Amino acid sequence: YTLSPSEHFRIEEGKTNSRSKSLLLVVTKPLDRETIPVHRLLLTASDGGRPSLTGTMELVISVLDVNDNAPQFNQSVYNVVLPEDAIEGTLVVRVNATDLDLGIYGEVIYEIDTVVPPSASDVFSINEKSGEIRLRGALDFETVTLYDLHIKAKDQGTPPLSGHCSVELEVLDVNDNAPEVWVTSLSVPVSEDASLGTVVALLSVSDRDSGANGRVRCWVWPAGPFGLEATFSGSYSLVLREALDRERVSEYEVEVRAEDGGSPALRARRGVRVPVSDVNDNAPAFAQAVYTVLARENNAAGAELARLRARDPDEAGNGRVSYS
């Protein structure tokens, strides 16, 4: 007996006393259905006559499947970029894994194994059949800039085999945070004879966004005797730029305004009330320098000859006038 060339099978003759022989087809190398699902062999029997006569038969061997292949993803890492204002239901990515086995051994079910950071486990969902990963929560660049999802695909064998991949989601910043302005120190009232450069207030300005969205410019409105000076990143001083005169303006209401570099830009403002305190910088002034008074010669002692009045625009004691 002879068998057509095969690396997977050979024949053995069984021991028997009869004229017929029993033959055994023996597997010599492990089978792999995914490589060769069907083997076709030709068995030839030859007698000992001259010339020899032969008979043949074909052997068709179908290899049955077992769950020996784990699902394999077409990528080990999926890189995704989404803006932080992506709405709920947005498709993040569709992962895909294949299993070379048949039937339930090749049916793949997807699940999210772990999420980094763990607090974001409820931000994403996955369709166990299609592998579509969607948002079910809000992204926030200012809280988390990068998510790492570990995805598992498992087949329906017993026990099931599984494959893994990761999805790295980078969150892009959008201009969703307006600047914030705080007054950290306020020195009021300001004396009207304060020197130029006197610091009236200290302010802190910040924007939680990044890049151009977080770059803030500040100014004082309305333009007047005060200006802003940057001390270090995010900190400003409100300083006196022009001389004050309480008798002209006794109190200022100014706004420190901030605007970021986003498009469109977001703005913030903080009001600062600056009262001006008085100094004795004004002398009393009569309405006229010379008064001409006509008096009767027969006036009694103590009679009023004239009434004079001097005004002083200063405040409180600085403006109380006495006469002599």
Automatic annotation (TrEMBL):
The record's GO molecular-function terms, alphabetically, read: calcium ion binding
User: Would I find Transmembrane among this entry's keywords?
Assistant: yes
- Gene Ontology annotations of biological process type: homophilic cell adhesion via plasma membrane adhesion molecules
Q: Which UniProt keywords apply?
A: Calcium, Cell adhesion, Cell membrane, Glycoprotein, Membrane, Repeat, Signal, Transmembrane, Transmembrane helix
Source organism, top-level taxon: Eukaryota
Where in or outside the cell is it found?
A: Cell membrane
Topology of this chain in the membrane: Single-pass type I membrane protein
> Which stretches make up the Cadherin domain?
1-73, 74-181, 182-286
Q: Which InterPro entries match?
A: Cadherin-like_dom, Cadherin-like_sf, Cadherin_CS, Protocadherin/Cadherin-CA
SMART domains xref list: CA (SM00112)
Question: Could you name the Gene Ontology cellular component terms for this entry?
Answer: plasma membrane
| A Pfam entry, by short name | Cadherin
What is the protein name for this chain? PCDAD protein
Q: Which organism is it from?
A: Pachyramphus minor
